[in-house]
Amino acid sequence: MTSDLQLRAKYICGKYWHRLVPALLLVGVLAVATAVGGVASEPEPQQVTVETDSMTVETTLSTEATVTGNTSLYNRSETLTDMPVYLRTATPAVELIAVTSTPPDRAVSVTQQIVLELSATRNGEVFWRDSRTLAIDSHNVTDGTARTQVTLDVQQLARDQLANVTAEAGDIGTIEARVSAIALYDSGSYSGTATAETPLTITDRAYELRTPQQDRQTNTTTVQQAVAGGGTSGLVGPRGRIPPRDLGVGLGGLAAIGLAGGVLYTGRRIDDFDAFRRQYERVRYVEWISRGTIPATGNYARVPVEALVDLVDIAIDSEKRVIHDTSKDIYAVVDGNLMYEYRDGDDGNTDEFGFATFGASTPSQSFDQEPEPMSPDTDQPIE
Predict the structure, then answer these.
(1) Cis bond before residue 212 (omega within 30° of 0)
(2) What is the pTM of this model?
(3) I need a labelling partner for 322 at 20 to 30 A (CA). Which of 9, 54, 99, 122 fits?
């Protein structure tokens, strides 16, 4: 805080502390009481959405193939599982396995099927499609698992159906194949579909199935429940977390009480407020005042002014300077044949207010000299 603001704050405290202190104390006490009451009272219940009776169904599609052809890469009768690529000569057929997992705490009816879908596309649009169900099973699952398995002869598929479609389509479009494991489930409370699928890519020497593939479906029931109110932010108190609003009100009340103490301390230190006020006005309006000598006699009609601030206002309005005769403690403004004057009283010991000695560096000015007119906009003499 600058010295000017400190001076103004002291002046306000000295003049109004009798009113400010009770008002600040009242506001502070009420704010603290309101915050304490809000923390101590039972929070209002809030309605929240709670998920109950969750059921998750997961379907997994995987592959495995037994080596039956001649190859130096694998042992005959070796079983390969979820390989990134299978050799057509080594493993001409592949096992497609669909497994659906259900909660073990309830019976779930599951109808599971493995489907092979062929399609021909051109520019991203399908112009031919064929879907064939390779296997379908129905299970009343009580132990949490339903399993369906079927063998797909990839050699025969490539040699017969795909070859025929390719011959028919020629270079018109692209032939695609896809394998899907589809599980329809029903527990009485929930029903739905879980689908795991993968593309089937066949080349001259190998075929590719991107497995394992999974699909998970979660079913829940939502209910509205009443829970204790209050936010999750704030500080922790004896009854849980303090809401930010109550915390802010309480801190504001404490700040008001502290400010009341500061105002009381500052105001009580000023024993003679009239002397302080006069010195405050001299310091505040020092830029409008010049030191000089005011004659005892003259041809001026003397007009007494009650306060220095009023005299400064007259000087501003008339574009004059205030002359301070330090030997007589008289301030005056001359306007034509009128001399407005303010006579200062006894200031007492003004050092206790922290003021510097007034006028030490202000140049003296003779009262007989014509004061320079001042600009009303810049508060500076007009050259």
Answers:
(1) yes
(2) 0.50
(3) 9
Sites in the chain below the pLDDT cut of 50: 1, 230-234, 238-239, 346-383
Q: Which residue has the tokens 């520019």?
A: 123
**Using an 8 Å Cβ cutoff, are 214 and 60 in contact?**
yes
Tell me the residue type at 13.
Answer: C
Torsion of CA 333, 336, 337, 340, to 10 degrees: -20
Q: How many CA atoms lie within 13 A of 293 on its CB side?
A: 7
Residue 283 CA to residue 279 CA, distance in Å, equals 6
Q: Which residues touch 180 (CB under 8 Å, ≥6 apart)?
A: 61, 114, 115, 117, 195, 196, 197
Exposure of 322 in the CB half-sphere (CA atoms within 13 A): 30
Q: What confidence score (pLDDT) does residue 73 get?
A: 92
Contact 245, 230 (CB under 8 A): no
Question: For residue 270, with 0-12 CB atoms within 10 Å meaning exposed, 13-18 middle and 19 or more buried, which class applies?
Answer: buried
- Which helix or strand (DSSP H or E) is residue 14 part of? helix 3-40
Residues whose CB falls within 8 Å of the CB of residue 89, separated by 6 or more in sequence, listed in order: 69, 70, 71, 205
